[in-house]
Amino acid sequence: MIQTGGALIVAGTTVINAGIYSITLPNPTNSFGGPVTARATGGITIVAGGVLIPATIDAGSGTVYLAASAIGAGGRSSRRTPR
After folding, report:
1. DSSP for 2-63?
2. Where are the domains positioned within the chain?
């Protein structure tokens, strides 16, 4: 899932599952009003203009990049190392 347009403005909980693909939400004016859950083994990039509250962020063996004015207390983030 790649963001190519304007900002995402979500009032409540956000859940994104891209499976084997990646999640790329680079717009610095994105706004998430609740916890964000994201799963994508191809990597996860989420940028927000306000507070970003990660719930479960699971990138498998991909990379995780979270950027926001503030990162709130959330759930868990995982990046599994290939064996």
Report:
1. B--SS--EESS-EEEEEETS-EEE--TT-EESSEEEEEETT-EEEE-SSEEEEEEEE-TTS-
2. 9-73
